[in-house]
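Open question from group meeting: does this chain pack into something compact, or does most of it stay loose? Before anyone orders reagents, we agreed to write out a predicted structure and look at it together. Recording both the input and the output here so the notebook holds the full record.
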Amino acid sequence: MDSPCTSESIYNLIPSDLKEPPQHLRYTSLFRATVKDDMKKFKTSMKTMGPAKVEVPSPKDFLKKHSKEKTLPPKKKFNRRSPKKPAVPLRTDHPVMGIQSGKNFINTNAADVIMGVAKKPKPIYVDKRTGDKHDLETSGLFPKYINKKDYGITPEYICKRNEDVKKAQEEYDNYIQENLKKAAMKRLSDEERTAVLQGLKKNWEEVHREFQSLSVFIDSIPKKIRKQKLEKEMKQLEHDISIIEKHKIIYIANK
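Structure tokens returned:
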């Protein structure tokens, strides 16, 4: 008979030479240490409530005796002749009770509703089929401003400003006329202005005719100089003609 220590067990049936399969190594990142250092550096500064670096109090600002006690208001002089408050009602005093009103509130309210003016509904508009309502007066769809009495009338400040501008223009024109009289300037009449304009146009036509008669090939320096001279004269004449046509009033100095 076998002893209890050497009794058969189901675990003894498993062969002891069975080896466990090798475990695969887990992937480890190359930046693991760097990430740990960054996390530790940033999280350590946020572990305190408030700023991490607190300003150290000065030794002179120490807690003094009676510094946190509440100060009493200033003492007032007692006056016996000051007006007193009304006396407290006695225990035997009873309030006035049983007062009733003879007004019929139901009939009064009904009469107010019947005789009162009906309240007009607020104008609204619906822009969607779901029924979204909006105020009509502030939407710009209701003709509100064109029905005003002063609609289309020039405001007073604009009329006043126009009058000031007109007055300033008249003063400026008078000033120019006085300066022209002082400088002995002469105004060209319409006939003189037309004659000058026609003369300039005639000169331009003559210069243009000479310019058209130039040779096609500019192969010498004199021809080139003559062409530049004619172009310059034509440009000057065109400038003078445009100035006279643009300004109807022209002043010239008396010789």
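Observations to bring back to the group:
Strands lie at 124-126, 133-135, 185-187, 251-253.
Helices lie at 32-44, 105-115, 156-182, 190-212, 221-246.
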